[in-house]
Fold 5-methyltetrahydropteroyltriglutamate--homocysteine S-methyltransferase.
Amino acid sequence: MTVPTTTIGYPRIGKSREVKKALEAFWSNKLDEETLLQTVREVEIFNWKTQLKAGIDRIGIGDGTLYDSVLDWVVRLGLIPERFRHLSGLDRYFAMARGKEGIPALEMTKWFDTNYHYLVPEIPTKFEPADFSDFLETAHLAQEFLGDRAIPIILGPISLLRLSNLEISPEQAASYLLERYLILLTQLKNLGITEVQIHEPVLVLGDAANWKELYQSIYPSLAQVGLPLHLVTYFDDLRETYAWVMQLPVTSISLDFTRGRNLELLKQYGFPADKRLGIGIVDARNIWKIRPETLFYILDEIQKFTSNISLQPSASLQFVPYDATKEKHLPEALRNVLSFAEQKLAEVAFLAKTVAGENTKTEQENIQKTWEIFEQFSPANLTVQEKLRNLELSDFERSLSYSLRLSQQIPLPPLPTTTIGSFPQTSEVRKLRVKYKKGEITLADYQAAIDAEIARCIQIQEEIGLDVLVHGEFERTDMVEYFGQQLSGFAFTENGWVQSYGSRYVRPPIIYGDVERTAPMTVREFKIAQSLTQKPVKGMLTAPVTIINWSYPRTDISRQDQAFQIALALREEVADLETAGAQIIQVDEPALREGLPLKTERWNEYLSWAIDSFRLATAIAQPQTQIHTHMCYCEFGDIIQEIERLDADVISIENSRSNNQTLREVTEGGYSHQIGNGTYDVHSPVVPTTEQIVRQLKAGIANLPLSQIWVNPDCGLKTRRWEEVIPALKNMVEATRIMREEINDISK
Ligand SMILES: Nc1nc2c(c(=O)[nH]1)N[C@@H](CNc1ccc(C(=O)N[C@@H](CCC(=O)N[C@@H](CCC(=O)N[C@@H](CCC(=O)O)C(=O)O)C(=O)O)C(=O)O)cc1)CN2
Ligand code: MET
Ligand SMILES: [Zn+2]
């Protein structure tokens, strides 16, 4: 007996970030289009070879991308919104991704509960002709390298619809789409492709049952092409939809057995005899080596219901970096229990061999041994655990309620202006860090250079006329990695890059032990900045849930415990910042919304500890200290009460891309604290005009009492260039001046 193996997506950024480098060079006119496309192709071929070498039988292909694979499907399917119609080729592609003078980009939002962002399709009333030629070319090439192992990955029609903003009815859109998917499947079949993966992750969402009829009408039509369809789901279980999804006319169905309760559903409803079950068994969302005993138990249970199986990662491996063995500076005991994409391929192959009855005893013992060595390397921190046990309710409660502490906080003009924290991370700053890491400059040299950046940043903000200043975050590689680097219990990689959006990547730190603050983390830079200005400078921290969501967490203790440990560390930092003179401290929690479970029934449990962890981190602040928080990409109409329970004095939010949707939700939810709804989109290189910002401010003033409104961009400015930032902020301050005058005139 043999057990086949499958992959359902692979990292597409290149082992040495080739795609990012090529993209950035292309955007700054240092690379031509042909070389850019060639780079993406080379990365893709390299990935195929790696998977082939690892012995994967059905290799998912076609998920390589220049920017985002959802955008790729939008373009292939001809779903081009009116405002991009006059453009073509890459010019149009990148305009849709990043905007262009006068033409806003597609909205960008989180891909399910991950830190990956996709571009939200807008289904227009008029479609352009579909063009699958790039995809077919890729599939054809993949056949050359992989033969029948090449399995094209297609974003399913209903997932595409469910994740879109629609100008027409879903039914009408579905019938247009169906026509196009039929063409695609026929063309693939004509190429000699033997099977396709259709990814339908929306089947795990709480509202998936609403789409039942559409699935039941579309899939029989797709099946008629006669190309075997492999329906792929991930990130959670099928719950309400399990029974009817099993009846869809597909030849294979993949389920995630690392999250949710698919095993229980399988036991309850069984598995159809005419289909293959793709078992998502190796966790594609975390970086820990497998624990074979627990997985063999699950695999044994599953095999009681079907023997027609394939083993695979639980989702695309795009959520983990390429290769853990490259991380030479990590302690060996830790490195040996890490598993990135390449290691996960080997794990899938190992599990398949074992299930097929081959003797893998030695391999199993070796894995066991690496875990035992790791456990000795990272013993529990009893002091931290003791502190967690002794928490009291009052630790979560500020000493005065919002309405009572308000008057004690720093007085500011109406519509106070500020930024979200980071200022441009220029290549000079990054090069400086490389030099320091290589030992070419001393710590003192490095800090002096950072301080010079802070000084320049303070001066620029004063010249622009902002009310509340920031130090600029130049010392931080990333808002999560930076804290990881300073807390015990965290490890960080040198080359563990994962795509966050487009050309922007992150190196999520690894939480491997109990977390403790060993020294102040941000006080030095705060003090430098505040010493240079009479205006208030915000202390700037990252909150617990965001640190956890943008790291690879432990799996041996709960996320709540990890969040509380981080909260305790931040709490000490808040106290130290206050002592150092901070009157305003911002504790960013941008990932709170993203971490919300995909099933609504688990929201309360999550929100309860998530919000408590923020309170634990911040409640130590004196009443006169103004606590800010920031969230980006938040559709939080449905959790506005919980946002209020954070008890932050001021929150800044993303707003500009979602058409004031968030603002409406906040207003309708009766939010009573202060709020800065982003006045412009920082993810686009386009500089907003004063008029545009005035319009945005008017929308705010129409919806909320003046005393509640702050003025700020919708996120940090680190990805922008100074040439973009300075005029944009000048326009923002000018727009505020205009509004203040108008308000003055009215009140006279
Ligand atoms: N973790 C995280 N998730 C997030 C966000 C975030 O800020 N952090 N923001 C939202 C949007 N996502 C984002 C994700 C990444 C970046 C981003 O700017 N990433 C940088 C990398 C930041 C970094 O780690 N920089 C390092 C390493 C930089 C580097 O590439 N150095 C060069 C050498 C220096 C040079 O010559 O330029 C090299 O190693 O080759 C540093 O500053 O030290 C990038 O892709 O360019 C922005 C937003 C949501 N999710
Ligand atoms: C992704 S949220 C970013 C918040 C952070 N303070 C910054 O300005 O970059
Ligand atoms: Zn943000």
